[in-house]
Amino acid sequence: MRLFFDQKSIPMRLLIILLLFTPSTLFAQEGTIEYSAEFEMQMPSIEMVMENLPPGIPLDSAMIEQGMKMFSQFQNQIQAIPMLMNYSRSTSLLTFDLPASATNTPLGVILSYPSTFTDYTEGKTLSAVQNFDGDDYIIVDEFEPLDWVFMERDSTILNYPVKQVTFSSDTLNVMAWYAPQIASAAGPLAFGGLPGLPLMIMSSFSSEDSPNFEMNFSAVRLEEGTVEPFSRPKGELITREEWMKMMLQNINPFQQ
After folding, report:
1. Quick one: which of 1, 197, 206, 236 is 20 to 30 A from 78 by CA?
2. Is the pTM of this model over 0.90?
3. In the beta sheet, which residues pair with residue 179?
4. Which of the two residues, 78 and 22, has the higher pLDDT score?
5. Which residue has the higher pLDDT, 24 or 232?
6. Which of 40, 32, 27 minimizes the C-alpha distance to 219?
7. Element at 121 (helix H, strand E)
8. Beta-carbon contacts of residue 147 (< 8 Å; ≥ 6 apart)
9. What is the dihedral sign for C-alpha 42, 39, 195, 21?
10. CB–CB of 187/145 below 8 Å?
11. CB 87 within 8 A of CB 197
């Protein structure tokens, strides 16, 4: 008996086989994840503060004393912040609410954006901010994934099999665990671009001309499946340099 196959039907047959025999978790490409994010910062020296004052800011001893007092109150304190991230296969929307005790601290500077949208395909991050008058702006940044090193270590987090990756540079060291079954490039802050959703991240930043700090993220809740549509934040597009200049002008009206 002669067998005849229509070549045009082969892709459809393969698709049917994949749908029947591939675990459904491999198709989980959107959902919501809640992280418990811990931040710890070391107090900078007075010399470091003086060297890193923005250009045009007068050297006011009272202002420096106030700044050092703020840093000293935050020294060696661990702040745990809940972060909620909606994700799809190639986009994410990260939101969080800072506690009142952290608003006027270095942590408030690091996490000063109420929401951040990232498109990992376009390589763009859009952060929603407001100026002192309450006007809405969107800071546009380039998103460049870290040069992750994939390790041959497996574990389990929240009942998901995870794999380990690391990154190391002169200033940043990161170890993360991601879930390959959750097909999304999303990740909190700069820690996306993996072939699966990260469920745990431990990072430390050290530099001679800026305060040293640690950021750790642990997934505490994960809901796979369809989420309410989320979109890019709205506001006037602005570069980070333009935003910093605007803020400095508000602090010092004589700044040009």
Report:
1. 197
2. no
3. 197
4. 78
5. 232
6. 32
7. none
8. 167
9. positive
10. no
11. yes
